[in-house]
Amino acid sequence: MKNKQSKKKILNKKKKDISEKTAFANLEKKSEKVNIAKSSTSGIPKYVADRMAKRIFFAAGIPTILGMSVFVVSYIIVTRNIAEIPPSSTIAISALFFLLGIAGLSFGILSASWDKEPGSFFGIENIPMNIKRAKDAFKPATQNFEEKS
């Protein structure tokens, strides 16, 4: 038992030999290297991302909210005996709004202009150009895969 305790004391003494200044100095040197961030030129610029977010909010958000409100409106109509609505109709109408929301998501992403200026209100003229950009973004990955095979 005494041998184990003496080994622990020796290890603790070795640990205490390192001064706090050297320990923190080494830590600061390492953290300086980590804090240096490389700026990447690829990716979506902030002004384009903001433009996409606005378009997605309106083109996908509104149909999605309508898809959820169909259940509430249907419930109110049925419980107050205003009309008889079959459950399949409620589900079909809400599914239609949810599909419009998915289409609106794609529209919001593809219709955003990449220029500094906002572009037109609907941005339909930007869709073919943005589809081409999306295809070009995947080309390098598929070309590397084909070369390895």
Descriptive report:
- By secondary structure, this protein is mostly helical.
- The chain has a domain of 103 residues.
- It is built from 5 helices and no strands.
- Helix 3 runs antiparallel to helix 4.
- The longest helix has 34 residues.
- It is extended and about 85 Å long.
Can you tell me the overall shape?
Answer: extended
**Radius of gyration using CA atoms only:** 30 Å
* Tally of individual helices: 5
What is the straight-line distance between the termini? 64 Å
Uncertain runs: none
Instruction: Label the structural class.
Output: mainly alpha
Short description:
The protein has 149 residues and is mostly helical. The protein has a domain of 103 residues. Helix 3 packs antiparallel against helix 4.
